[in-house]
Amino acid sequence: MTSIGIHDLELATAHHVVDLTRLAEAGGTDPAKYHLGLGQDQMSFPAPDEDIITMGASAALPLLERNGIEGLRTILFATESGVDQSKAAGVSVHHLLGLPRQVRVTEFKQACYGGTAALQAAIGIVSRFPHERVLVIASDVARYELDSPGEPTQGAGAVAMLVSADPALVEIEPATGLFTDDVDDFWRPNDSSTAVVDGALSVSAYLDALTGSWDDLQARGGPGIDDVDRILYHQPFTKMAKKGQQRLVEHTGASLSTALTAAEQAAAGAARDTGLVTGSIYNRRLGNSYTASLYAALAALIDHDADLAGRRIGMFSYGSGSVSEFITGIVQPGYASRRGAERVAAALEARVPLEVAEYRELHARAYPSAADVETPRITRAPFRFAGLQGRARRYE
Ligand code: CAA
Protein backbone atom coordinates (compact mmCIF):
# COMPACT_ATOMS: atom_id res chain seq x y z
CA MET A 1 0.00 0.00 0.00
CA THR A 2 1.30 3.47 -0.89
CA SER A 3 2.51 5.62 1.95
CA ILE A 4 0.45 8.86 2.20
CA GLY A 5 0.76 11.79 4.55
CA ILE A 6 2.08 15.28 5.17
CA HIS A 7 4.81 16.19 2.70
CA ASP A 8 5.47 19.68 4.06
CA LEU A 9 3.78 22.22 6.33
CA GLU A 10 3.96 25.92 7.13
CA LEU A 11 2.58 28.12 9.91
CA ALA A 12 1.38 31.72 9.69
CA THR A 13 -0.16 34.01 12.25
CA ALA A 14 -1.67 37.47 12.65
CA HIS A 15 -0.16 40.98 12.70
CA HIS A 16 -0.72 41.78 16.37
CA VAL A 17 0.08 40.16 19.70
CA VAL A 18 -1.40 40.70 23.16
CA ASP A 19 0.84 39.97 26.13
CA LEU A 20 -1.05 37.97 28.74
CA THR A 21 0.83 39.50 31.70
CA ARG A 22 -0.50 42.87 30.55
CA LEU A 23 -4.02 41.48 30.02
CA ALA A 24 -4.02 39.88 33.47
CA GLU A 25 -2.79 43.04 35.20
CA ALA A 26 -5.36 45.19 33.39
CA GLY A 27 -8.13 42.86 34.60
CA GLY A 28 -6.84 42.56 38.17
CA THR A 29 -5.91 38.88 37.70
CA ASP A 30 -2.72 37.21 38.94
CA PRO A 31 -0.62 36.72 35.74
CA ALA A 32 0.38 33.27 37.08
CA LYS A 33 -3.18 32.14 36.41
CA TYR A 34 -2.63 32.65 32.67
CA HIS A 35 1.02 31.55 32.47
CA LEU A 36 0.80 28.53 34.80
CA GLY A 37 -2.93 27.92 35.26
CA LEU A 38 -3.69 28.01 31.51
CA GLY A 39 -0.15 27.63 30.14
CA GLN A 40 -0.46 30.65 27.85
CA ASP A 41 1.98 33.58 27.46
CA GLN A 42 0.60 35.57 24.53
CA MET A 43 -2.21 35.59 22.00
CA SER A 44 -2.06 36.59 18.33
CA PHE A 45 -4.69 39.09 17.27
CA PRO A 46 -5.58 40.02 13.68
CA ALA A 47 -5.40 43.54 12.25
CA PRO A 48 -8.64 44.79 10.64
CA ASP A 49 -7.27 43.83 7.21
CA GLU A 50 -6.58 40.22 8.20
CA ASP A 51 -8.77 37.15 8.54
CA ILE A 52 -8.71 33.38 8.08
CA ILE A 53 -8.22 33.84 4.33
CA THR A 54 -5.19 36.15 4.52
CA MET A 55 -3.55 33.95 7.17
CA GLY A 56 -4.33 30.77 5.22
CA ALA A 57 -2.93 32.19 1.98
CA SER A 58 0.15 33.48 3.83
CA ALA A 59 0.81 29.97 5.18
CA ALA A 60 0.25 28.35 1.79
CA LEU A 61 2.44 30.72 -0.26
CA PRO A 62 5.89 29.60 1.00
CA LEU A 63 4.71 25.99 0.95
CA LEU A 64 3.93 26.21 -2.76
CA GLU A 65 7.08 28.25 -3.44
CA ARG A 66 9.12 25.39 -1.93
CA ASN A 67 7.21 22.52 -3.52
CA GLY A 68 5.71 23.88 -6.75
CA ILE A 69 2.12 23.28 -7.83
CA GLU A 70 2.51 20.18 -9.96
CA GLY A 71 -0.31 17.70 -9.26
CA LEU A 72 -2.17 20.20 -7.07
CA ARG A 73 -5.86 19.76 -7.93
CA THR A 74 -7.58 20.13 -4.56
CA ILE A 75 -7.69 22.74 -1.78
CA LEU A 76 -9.47 21.76 1.44
CA PHE A 77 -9.94 24.69 3.84
CA ALA A 78 -10.87 23.92 7.44
CA THR A 79 -12.17 26.60 9.79
CA GLU A 80 -14.65 27.28 12.53
CA SER A 81 -14.43 31.06 12.10
CA GLY A 82 -15.72 31.11 8.52
CA VAL A 83 -16.30 34.50 6.88
CA ASP A 84 -19.15 33.46 4.57
CA GLN A 85 -22.04 31.03 4.96
CA SER A 86 -21.84 29.90 1.33
CA LYS A 87 -18.52 30.51 -0.39
CA ALA A 88 -15.55 28.39 0.68
CA ALA A 89 -12.68 30.50 2.01
CA GLY A 90 -10.32 28.38 -0.08
CA VAL A 91 -11.75 29.88 -3.29
CA SER A 92 -10.30 33.28 -2.31
CA VAL A 93 -7.01 31.59 -1.37
CA HIS A 94 -7.00 29.88 -4.78
CA HIS A 95 -7.34 33.32 -6.40
CA LEU A 96 -4.71 34.99 -4.19
CA LEU A 97 -2.21 32.23 -4.96
CA GLY A 98 -2.89 32.49 -8.71
CA LEU A 99 -3.60 28.77 -9.06
CA PRO A 100 -4.91 27.17 -12.26
CA ARG A 101 -8.69 26.81 -12.65
CA GLN A 102 -8.47 23.02 -12.71
CA VAL A 103 -8.66 22.74 -8.92
CA ARG A 104 -11.54 21.64 -6.66
CA VAL A 105 -12.02 23.74 -3.53
CA THR A 106 -14.24 23.21 -0.53
CA GLU A 107 -14.55 24.05 3.17
CA PHE A 108 -14.71 21.76 6.21
CA LYS A 109 -16.49 22.61 9.43
CA GLN A 110 -16.70 20.79 12.75
CA ALA A 111 -15.16 23.13 15.32
CA CYS A 112 -11.45 22.48 15.92
CA TYR A 113 -11.71 18.98 14.41
CA GLY A 114 -12.15 20.32 10.84
CA GLY A 115 -8.40 20.29 10.08
CA THR A 116 -8.18 16.59 10.79
CA ALA A 117 -11.31 15.89 8.74
CA ALA A 118 -9.67 17.76 5.84
CA LEU A 119 -6.42 15.83 6.32
CA GLN A 120 -8.26 12.49 6.20
CA ALA A 121 -10.24 13.57 3.12
CA ALA A 122 -6.98 14.64 1.46
CA ILE A 123 -5.48 11.21 2.17
CA GLY A 124 -8.57 9.64 0.58
CA ILE A 125 -8.18 11.79 -2.54
CA VAL A 126 -4.48 10.93 -2.86
CA SER A 127 -5.21 7.22 -2.45
CA ARG A 128 -7.69 7.54 -5.38
CA PHE A 129 -5.37 9.80 -7.44
CA PRO A 130 -1.81 8.91 -6.31
CA HIS A 131 -0.14 11.48 -8.57
CA GLU A 132 -2.16 14.37 -7.18
CA ARG A 133 -1.34 16.51 -4.17
CA VAL A 134 -3.84 18.23 -1.88
CA LEU A 135 -3.38 21.58 -0.16
CA VAL A 136 -4.98 21.45 3.29
CA ILE A 137 -5.36 24.77 5.11
CA ALA A 138 -6.53 25.03 8.72
CA SER A 139 -7.04 28.67 9.70
CA ASP A 140 -8.89 30.30 12.58
CA VAL A 141 -9.38 33.38 14.70
CA ALA A 142 -10.49 32.34 18.20
CA ARG A 143 -12.74 35.00 19.73
CA TYR A 144 -14.54 35.01 23.06
CA GLU A 145 -16.35 37.87 24.74
CA LEU A 146 -14.27 40.51 26.53
CA ASP A 147 -13.92 39.84 30.27
CA SER A 148 -15.15 36.24 29.90
CA PRO A 149 -13.14 33.21 31.20
CA GLY A 150 -12.36 32.31 27.59
CA GLU A 151 -10.79 35.72 26.81
CA PRO A 152 -7.17 34.76 27.65
CA THR A 153 -7.52 31.66 25.45
CA GLN A 154 -8.14 33.64 22.25
CA GLY A 155 -5.60 33.55 19.44
CA ALA A 156 -5.11 33.30 15.69
CA GLY A 157 -3.14 31.16 13.30
CA ALA A 158 -3.09 29.07 10.15
CA VAL A 159 -1.27 25.92 9.12
CA ALA A 160 -0.99 24.88 5.48
CA MET A 161 -0.06 21.28 4.69
CA LEU A 162 0.71 19.56 1.43
CA VAL A 163 -0.64 15.99 1.41
CA SER A 164 0.89 13.53 -1.02
CA ALA A 165 2.04 9.98 -1.63
CA ASP A 166 5.56 9.21 -0.35
CA PRO A 167 5.53 12.23 1.98
CA ALA A 168 8.82 13.74 3.13
CA LEU A 169 7.55 14.66 6.62
CA VAL A 170 4.97 12.37 8.28
CA GLU A 171 3.27 9.25 6.92
CA ILE A 172 -0.23 9.02 8.42
CA GLU A 173 -1.06 5.46 9.47
CA PRO A 174 -4.39 3.87 8.48
CA ALA A 175 -5.67 2.85 11.94
CA THR A 176 -7.54 5.70 13.57
CA GLY A 177 -9.69 6.18 16.68
CA LEU A 178 -13.02 8.04 16.43
CA PHE A 179 -15.47 9.42 18.99
CA THR A 180 -18.56 11.58 18.42
CA ASP A 181 -20.95 12.86 21.09
CA ASP A 182 -23.72 15.47 20.73
CA VAL A 183 -22.73 17.88 23.53
CA ASP A 184 -23.28 21.66 23.92
CA ASP A 185 -19.85 22.54 25.27
CA PHE A 186 -18.85 25.24 22.77
CA TRP A 187 -20.51 26.62 19.64
CA ARG A 188 -20.89 29.83 17.64
CA PRO A 189 -24.43 30.82 16.62
CA ASN A 190 -24.81 32.30 13.12
CA ASP A 191 -25.45 35.80 14.46
CA SER A 192 -22.43 35.86 16.80
CA SER A 193 -18.78 36.73 16.16
CA THR A 194 -17.76 35.18 19.48
CA ALA A 195 -18.07 31.61 20.70
CA VAL A 196 -20.54 30.53 23.37
CA VAL A 197 -18.90 28.15 25.81
CA ASP A 198 -19.58 26.09 28.90
CA GLY A 199 -15.96 25.98 30.07
CA ALA A 200 -16.17 23.19 32.65
CA LEU A 201 -18.27 21.00 30.34
CA SER A 202 -15.86 21.63 27.45
CA VAL A 203 -12.91 20.40 29.51
CA SER A 204 -14.67 17.22 30.61
CA ALA A 205 -16.09 16.59 27.11
CA TYR A 206 -12.54 16.92 25.69
CA LEU A 207 -11.17 14.39 28.20
CA ASP A 208 -14.00 11.91 27.63
CA ALA A 209 -13.46 12.21 23.87
CA LEU A 210 -9.75 11.53 24.38
CA THR A 211 -10.33 8.20 26.14
CA GLY A 212 -13.17 7.37 23.74
CA SER A 213 -11.04 7.88 20.63
CA TRP A 214 -8.03 6.18 22.24
CA ASP A 215 -10.15 3.10 23.02
CA ASP A 216 -11.43 3.04 19.43
CA LEU A 217 -7.84 3.26 18.15
CA GLN A 218 -7.00 0.21 20.24
CA ALA A 219 -10.09 -1.65 19.02
CA ARG A 220 -9.06 -0.91 15.42
CA GLY A 221 -5.62 -2.47 15.90
CA GLY A 222 -3.72 0.80 16.36
CA PRO A 223 -0.43 0.99 18.26
CA GLY A 224 -0.41 0.56 22.05
CA ILE A 225 0.82 3.35 24.31
CA ASP A 226 4.36 1.94 24.53
CA ASP A 227 4.66 2.08 20.73
CA VAL A 228 3.79 5.80 20.50
CA ASP A 229 6.96 7.90 20.92
CA ARG A 230 5.46 11.41 20.98
CA ILE A 231 1.91 12.55 21.72
CA LEU A 232 0.39 15.84 20.55
CA TYR A 233 -2.95 17.26 21.61
CA HIS A 234 -5.36 19.89 20.36
CA GLN A 235 -4.39 22.88 22.53
CA PRO A 236 -7.18 25.40 23.24
CA PHE A 237 -4.66 26.45 25.91
CA THR A 238 -1.53 24.40 26.52
CA LYS A 239 -2.56 23.30 30.04
CA MET A 240 -5.35 21.34 28.28
CA ALA A 241 -2.68 19.14 26.66
CA LYS A 242 -1.27 18.46 30.12
CA LYS A 243 -4.74 17.52 31.37
CA GLY A 244 -5.07 15.21 28.36
CA GLN A 245 -1.73 13.57 29.09
CA GLN A 246 -2.74 13.10 32.76
CA ARG A 247 -5.97 11.44 31.62
CA LEU A 248 -4.09 9.16 29.21
CA VAL A 249 -1.68 8.17 31.99
CA GLU A 250 -4.64 7.24 34.27
CA HIS A 251 -6.39 5.45 31.42
CA THR A 252 -3.46 3.39 30.11
CA GLY A 253 -1.33 3.05 33.25
CA ALA A 254 1.73 4.20 31.27
CA SER A 255 4.43 6.29 32.94
CA LEU A 256 4.43 9.42 30.74
CA SER A 257 5.73 12.82 31.76
CA THR A 258 2.96 15.34 32.37
CA ALA A 259 5.43 18.25 32.66
CA LEU A 260 4.38 21.36 30.75
CA THR A 261 7.48 23.48 31.34
CA ALA A 262 11.19 22.76 31.00
CA ALA A 263 11.55 23.10 34.79
CA GLU A 264 8.77 20.57 35.42
CA GLN A 265 10.33 18.28 32.82
CA ALA A 266 13.70 18.37 34.61
CA ALA A 267 11.89 17.16 37.75
CA ALA A 268 9.85 14.51 35.95
CA GLY A 269 12.20 11.67 36.87
CA ALA A 270 11.82 8.42 34.94
CA ALA A 271 8.45 9.28 33.38
CA ARG A 272 8.78 9.12 29.57
CA ASP A 273 8.97 12.47 27.77
CA THR A 274 6.48 12.34 24.88
CA GLY A 275 7.02 15.93 23.74
CA LEU A 276 4.44 17.80 25.80
CA VAL A 277 6.78 20.76 26.42
CA THR A 278 8.21 20.83 22.89
CA GLY A 279 4.79 20.46 21.24
CA SER A 280 3.43 23.49 23.08
CA ILE A 281 6.20 25.97 22.16
CA TYR A 282 4.18 27.70 19.42
CA ASN A 283 0.70 27.43 20.93
CA ARG A 284 1.85 29.15 24.15
CA ARG A 285 2.47 32.22 21.98
CA LEU A 286 -0.26 31.90 19.33
CA GLY A 287 -3.16 31.23 21.66
CA ASN A 288 -5.96 29.02 20.40
CA SER A 289 -5.95 28.64 16.63
CA TYR A 290 -8.84 26.12 16.69
CA THR A 291 -8.42 23.91 13.56
CA ALA A 292 -4.73 24.83 13.24
CA SER A 293 -3.82 24.21 16.88
CA LEU A 294 -2.94 20.50 16.67
CA TYR A 295 -0.89 21.10 13.51
CA ALA A 296 0.88 24.08 15.11
CA ALA A 297 1.86 21.58 17.82
CA LEU A 298 3.15 19.25 15.09
CA ALA A 299 5.14 22.13 13.57
CA ALA A 300 6.67 22.94 16.97
CA LEU A 301 7.66 19.32 17.54
CA ILE A 302 9.21 18.96 14.09
CA ASP A 303 11.07 22.25 14.45
CA HIS A 304 12.50 21.56 17.91
CA ASP A 305 12.92 17.78 18.33
CA ALA A 306 16.16 16.60 16.74
CA ASP A 307 15.43 12.90 17.34
CA LEU A 308 12.23 12.33 15.42
CA ALA A 309 13.26 10.29 12.37
CA GLY A 310 11.33 7.01 12.33
CA ARG A 311 9.43 7.95 15.48
CA ARG A 312 5.68 7.41 15.81
CA ILE A 313 3.62 10.48 16.77
CA GLY A 314 0.10 10.20 18.22
CA MET A 315 -2.15 13.18 17.54
CA PHE A 316 -5.42 13.84 19.34
CA SER A 317 -7.84 16.11 17.50
CA TYR A 318 -10.88 17.47 19.37
CA GLY A 319 -13.68 19.59 17.95
CA SER A 320 -16.34 20.74 20.41
CA GLY A 321 -19.85 19.69 19.76
CA SER A 322 -18.18 17.12 19.54
CA VAL A 323 -16.12 15.04 17.11
CA SER A 324 -12.65 13.74 17.87
CA GLU A 325 -10.05 11.49 16.31
CA PHE A 326 -6.78 9.97 17.48
CA ILE A 327 -4.41 9.48 14.56
CA THR A 328 -0.82 8.30 14.39
CA GLY A 329 1.99 8.98 11.96
CA ILE A 330 5.60 8.01 11.35
CA VAL A 331 8.14 10.81 10.94
CA GLN A 332 10.15 10.35 7.75
CA PRO A 333 13.97 10.23 7.69
CA GLY A 334 14.44 13.50 5.78
CA TYR A 335 12.19 15.54 8.07
CA ALA A 336 15.03 17.77 9.27
CA SER A 337 15.23 19.49 5.88
CA ARG A 338 11.61 20.63 6.35
CA ARG A 339 12.21 22.28 9.73
CA GLY A 340 11.27 25.97 10.01
CA ALA A 341 12.03 27.08 13.58
CA GLU A 342 13.77 30.28 12.48
CA ARG A 343 10.95 31.28 10.13
CA VAL A 344 8.30 30.75 12.81
CA ALA A 345 10.36 32.53 15.49
CA ALA A 346 10.78 35.50 13.14
CA ALA A 347 7.03 35.61 12.43
CA LEU A 348 6.20 35.49 16.14
CA GLU A 349 8.76 38.19 16.96
CA ALA A 350 7.55 40.42 14.12
CA ARG A 351 4.04 40.71 15.58
CA VAL A 352 3.16 44.23 16.68
CA PRO A 353 2.16 44.41 20.37
CA LEU A 354 -1.21 45.90 21.26
CA GLU A 355 -1.79 47.75 24.49
CA VAL A 356 -4.80 46.33 26.32
CA ALA A 357 -6.95 49.39 25.55
CA GLU A 358 -6.09 49.14 21.82
CA TYR A 359 -6.87 45.42 21.83
CA ARG A 360 -10.22 45.99 23.54
CA GLU A 361 -11.10 48.67 21.00
CA LEU A 362 -10.23 46.39 18.07
CA HIS A 363 -12.11 43.48 19.65
CA ALA A 364 -15.25 45.52 20.20
CA ARG A 365 -15.27 46.90 16.66
CA ALA A 366 -18.17 45.25 14.86
CA TYR A 367 -17.52 43.19 11.77
CA PRO A 368 -18.02 45.50 8.77
CA SER A 369 -21.59 45.16 7.53
CA ALA A 370 -22.10 48.13 5.16
CA ALA A 371 -22.28 47.30 1.45
CA ASP A 372 -18.99 49.07 0.70
CA VAL A 373 -16.14 49.26 3.21
CA GLU A 374 -12.45 49.98 2.79
CA THR A 375 -10.25 48.50 5.51
CA PRO A 376 -7.14 50.44 6.61
CA ARG A 377 -3.83 49.05 5.37
CA ILE A 378 -2.14 47.63 8.47
CA THR A 379 -0.81 44.11 7.95
CA ARG A 380 2.65 43.42 6.51
CA ALA A 381 1.56 39.92 5.42
CA PRO A 382 1.68 39.09 1.69
CA PHE A 383 -2.14 39.27 1.45
CA ARG A 384 -4.76 41.55 2.97
CA PHE A 385 -8.50 41.89 3.30
CA ALA A 386 -9.17 45.12 1.39
CA GLY A 387 -12.82 45.49 2.39
CA LEU A 388 -16.33 44.94 1.04
CA GLN A 389 -17.67 45.90 -2.37
CA GLY A 390 -21.39 45.34 -2.79
CA ARG A 391 -21.03 43.15 0.37
CA ALA A 392 -18.53 40.87 -1.44
CA ARG A 393 -15.16 40.43 0.25
CA ARG A 394 -12.17 41.82 -1.60
CA TYR A 395 -8.58 40.67 -1.09
CA GLU A 396 -5.27 41.86 -2.47
N1 CAA B 1 -1.66 30.76 39.76
C1 CAA B 1 -1.58 29.58 39.11
N2 CAA B 1 -2.67 28.91 38.65
C2 CAA B 1 -3.88 29.46 38.86
C3 CAA B 1 -4.03 30.69 39.55
C4 CAA B 1 -2.85 31.35 40.01
N3 CAA B 1 -2.90 32.51 40.65
N4 CAA B 1 -5.35 30.97 39.60
C5 CAA B 1 -6.01 29.96 38.99
N5 CAA B 1 -5.12 29.06 38.54
C6 CAA B 1 -5.39 27.84 37.78
C7 CAA B 1 -6.58 27.05 38.33
O1 CAA B 1 -6.22 26.28 39.44
C8 CAA B 1 -6.95 26.22 37.09
O2 CAA B 1 -6.03 25.16 36.98
P1 CAA B 1 -6.58 23.65 36.81
O3 CAA B 1 -7.46 23.64 35.58
O4 CAA B 1 -5.36 22.83 36.65
O5 CAA B 1 -7.36 23.36 38.05
C9 CAA B 1 -6.66 27.17 35.93
O6 CAA B 1 -5.81 28.21 36.46
C10 CAA B 1 -7.91 27.80 35.31
O7 CAA B 1 -8.59 28.50 36.32
P2 CAA B 1 -10.15 28.27 36.59
O8 CAA B 1 -10.40 26.86 36.95
O9 CAA B 1 -10.56 29.33 37.56
O10 CAA B 1 -10.88 28.43 35.24
P3 CAA B 1 -11.38 29.72 34.43
O11 CAA B 1 -12.62 30.22 35.00
O12 CAA B 1 -10.26 30.67 34.23
O13 CAA B 1 -11.73 29.04 33.02
C11 CAA B 1 -11.54 27.76 31.07
C12 CAA B 1 -10.85 28.16 32.37
C13 CAA B 1 -12.85 27.06 31.36
C14 CAA B 1 -10.64 26.80 30.32
C15 CAA B 1 -11.79 29.05 30.25
O14 CAA B 1 -10.55 29.62 29.90
C16 CAA B 1 -12.58 28.80 28.99
O15 CAA B 1 -13.81 28.76 29.01
N6 CAA B 1 -11.89 28.64 27.81
C17 CAA B 1 -12.53 28.40 26.54
C18 CAA B 1 -13.03 26.98 26.38
C19 CAA B 1 -11.92 25.99 26.22
O16 CAA B 1 -10.83 26.30 25.79
N7 CAA B 1 -12.20 24.71 26.55
C20 CAA B 1 -11.24 23.65 26.40
C21 CAA B 1 -11.85 22.35 25.94
S1 CAA B 1 -12.88 22.61 24.51
C22 CAA B 1 -11.77 22.58 23.18
O17 CAA B 1 -10.68 22.14 23.30
C23 CAA B 1 -12.23 23.17 21.88
C24 CAA B 1 -11.71 24.54 21.73
O18 CAA B 1 -10.67 24.76 21.15
C25 CAA B 1 -12.48 25.64 22.31
Automatic annotation (TrEMBL):
Domain Hydroxymethylglutaryl-coenzyme A synthase C-terminal: 177-249, 281-335
Entry EC number(s): 2.3.3.10
Xref: CDD domains: init_cond_enzymes
This protein's record includes keyword Transferase: yes
Binding-site residues, (3S)-3-hydroxy-3-methylglutaryl-CoA: D30, Y144, K243, N288
Highest taxon listed in the record's lineage: Bacteria
Keywords: Acyltransferase, Transferase
Gene3D superfamilies found in the cross-reference section: 3.40.47.10
Family: Belongs to the thiolase-like superfamily. HMG-CoA synthase family.
PANTHER family, per the entry: 3-HYDROXY-3-METHYLGLUTARYL COENZYME A SYNTHASE, HYDROXYMETHYLGLUTARYL-COA SYNTHASE
The protein, known as: Hydroxymethylglutaryl-CoA synthase
